[in-house]
Amino acid sequence: MMRGALVATLLALTPGAVWAQTMDPVAPPPPVAEPGRTGVLTLDAVLRSSATHAPAILEAMAKERAADGKALSARGAFDLLFEGDASSRLLGYYDGSYVEGQVTRPLQTNGGALYGAYRVSRGDFPEYYGDRFTNRLGEVKVGAVFSLMRDRWIDARRTGVGLADRDIDLARLDREMVAIGVQRRAIAAYQDWVAAGQRVAVYRDLLTLASERQQSIERQIQLGARPDILGTENRQNIVRRQSLLVRSQQQLEAAANALSFFLRDANGEPMVPLAEQLPREFPAFELPPLTRDLGRRVERPDLDAILVRLDQNEQRRRLAENDMRPRLDLKGELSKDVGPVGLGGDTKTPTEAIVGVKFSLPLERRAARGRIAEAQAEADALRRRRQLIEDQILVEVNGLAIQVQAAEKLAGLAADEAALATRMAEAERRRFTLGVSDFILVNLREEAAADAQLRRLDAQYARSAARAELVAATVDRDQLGL
């Protein structure tokens, strides 16, 4: 009796999962609430926490912000530019002073620019600086430069902006890939934790049966209905089952520790879930129809990234082709001196209009031809890479669909086996109570039932894991918590 009471006390003090009967819905208000320490811990809560606080996702988000900064910097090539120039002759025969300011606005649709300037001078200048003379109130000038051949449709500035914009897309797609990988691992960690908790429950039930039987056996021994060796044998069985329970509890603690990498508080610190927060079942996932062409209909960030890189490569190729063209720039300028006539005379007073062209032609153009050949080769490599990824996705998704279908069947068979093994164990215990069965047989029936329960658990875990892998492979953002 004393030993039976001691076993019961040890069992009561053993930490384990208290299975929750209901699952309280957790609303996802912005900002994301900190996962609670009471009630059932749902997969949705883990995924929201992971998506908000996972360091890998935060790092990818920072890289995306950096890409935004680079795009803003690239647009700086079209910023309004002010330039100033001033000089004064302090010694010598001439005493002229000169001040000029100019504002230039590069064109976003052409390689040219618009500009406006104002200059004013005082004093006398040498004849070779005659263009510095202005009327007393200075000279106002406006002008424009237009590219007619090279840089007309594309130039380095516009290409830089286009590449920077596509870098933002690449950073976003990289963040999505990182987030999918993180959420995939978070789901796996959550499933491992649930499975470990259910294994603890199976071994605890197995230990409870042996502990309760010990009390009955000791009463029968006192009454002379059972031999003393039967009590010793059952106590040996209790110790062995306690070892199994302790080992499973250690695995549960390890799984909870692994899950804390994804489950974090409001400050982003890891939070170890409690055994009392374990759910009764594995998370369920909704799947699309498992057809052979499912992999062809998947929209994956890694495939989109190839398209973005192809677009960037096309921009570089077009820029290289632009450098093959001759340069022909048209310039137009209008200027007017205002105010009283200065030392330069009245020749400065009339309005002046100037039109001119500038032409240049690269003769060998090897640098441009080399960049064109490089861009064409890179485009071919990217297309091959896209074909490779598409084929890999098709094989991966179809393979996961096969796993899901097989896991569904195995889970059903394992559930039937567990139900039958449980009925056999219950029947054998009743026979043992009535004295028509022996200890060895009832012990074998119980352990066979426990093994069947563990196989049912493993089959349910495999089914849930296969469905989760398919959800991640098909990028179901809603079920991934993204």
> Biggest sheet: strands, sense, closure?
6 strands, antiparallel
What oligomeric arrangement do these chains adopt? single chain
Largest beta sheet: what is the strand line-up? 1-2-3-4-5-6
Helix percentage range: 55-70%
- The proportion of strand residues reads 5-15%
Report on the structure:
A hairpin with a 6-residue loop joins strand 2 (97-106) and strand 3 (113-122). The protein has helices at residues 2-13, 43-53, 55-75, 156-222, 228-259, 301-324, 366-433, 439-473, and strands at residues 81-88, 97-106, 113-122, 139-147, 327-337, 352-360. It has a six-stranded antiparallel β-sheet with strand order 1-2-3-4-5-6, with no helix packed on it. With 482 residues, the protein is of the alpha+beta class.
